[in-house]
């Protein structure tokens, strides 16, 4: 006989995001095996782990792109487990996938305009916010009218993040933003995330660049074989080389 799970009501004290016992199957494959994850409000939470640990599947499950087969996903204490992806996005959540999801045939301006729901043309976009984004990512302004597909990998990543923040968001979920980027562009990306943190945005970040993680992370969760096997403060993990070797097989 199944037990009725009591409803959870949103409160100011609730974490921004919480996964409770989440399982995800993709076809015949059981990828997530009871993921428990807490993302505190106003912090940047790093999600680390070896390749194939289940990090990207976790993000896609949060966003409803893959459906959890068991467990609950809570946003501000409210259950979003069964919501479709557009409904989750409307809860002030932005997601930047590993492949960036850029519309290659559209200009940079048109890519951002698609994400600016309150604007029907570029003149209706929030000019003050655009100038702030241009300050974070000068390449976005420089290539404003260029086809996004013609940009370099680093420039596309900047456009992807800019598109995610063209409107204020409570939660950003970003999959490996520094992957394949030159060090100079990584530094710009770090500066952008530091500003977003300072503005009170909650961020969940999958990252393989451990220097990046150490610099930005407030809290950390480490995944292995479809489970969270460690959670705590990023600073504590960064200071414990034995724990790093045990969890990740390498040192920060």
From TrEMBL:
Annotated ABC transporter domain residues: 17-250
The UniProt record lists the keyword Nucleotide-binding: yes
Domain of life from the UniProt record: Bacteria
GO molecular-function terms, A-Z: ATP binding
Keywords: Amino-acid transport, ATP-binding, Cell membrane, Membrane, Nucleotide-binding, Transport
PROSITE patterns membership: ABC_TRANSPORTER_1 (PS00211), ABC_TRANSPORTER_2 (PS50893)
Matches recorded under InterPro entries: AAA+_ATPase, ABC_transporter-like_ATP-bd, ABC_transporter-like_CS, BCAA_Transport_ATP-bd_LivF, P-loop_NTPase
Any matching Pfam family: ABC_tran
Family: Belongs to the ABC transporter superfamily.
UniProt name for this protein: ABC transporter ATP-binding protein
């Amino acid at each position: 006989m199944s037990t009725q799970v009591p409803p959870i009501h949103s409160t100011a004290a609730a974490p921004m995001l919480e996964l409770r016992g989440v399982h995800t199957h993709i076809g015949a494959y059981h990828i997530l095996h009871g993921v428990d994850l807490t993302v505190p409000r106003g912090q940047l939470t790093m999600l680390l782990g070896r390749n194939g640990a289940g990090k990207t599947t976790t993000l896609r499950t949060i966003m409803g792109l893959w459906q959890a087969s068991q467990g609950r996903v809570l946003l501000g204490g409210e259950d979003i487990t069964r919501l479709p992806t557009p409904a989750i996005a409307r809860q002030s959540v932005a997601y930047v996938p590993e492949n960036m999801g850029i519309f290659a045939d559209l200009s940079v301006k048109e890519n951002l305009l698609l994400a600016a729901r309150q604007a029907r043309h570029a003149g209706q976009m929030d000019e003050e916010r655009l100038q702030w984004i241009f300050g974070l990512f000068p390449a976005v302004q420089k290539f404003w009218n260029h086809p996004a597909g013609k940009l370099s990998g680093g420039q596309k990543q900047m456009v992807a993040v800019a598109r995610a923040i063209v409107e204020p968001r409570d939660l950003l979920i970003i999959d490996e933003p520094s992957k394949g980027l030159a060090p100079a562009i990584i530094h710009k990306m770090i500066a952008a995330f530091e500003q977003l943190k300072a503005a009170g945005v909650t961020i969940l970040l999958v990252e393989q660049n451990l220097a990046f993680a150490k610099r930005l992370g407030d809290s950390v969760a480490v995944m292995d074989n479809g489970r969270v096997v460690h959670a705590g403060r990023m600073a504590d993990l960064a200071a414990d080389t034995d724990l790093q070797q045990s969890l990740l097989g390498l040192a920060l």
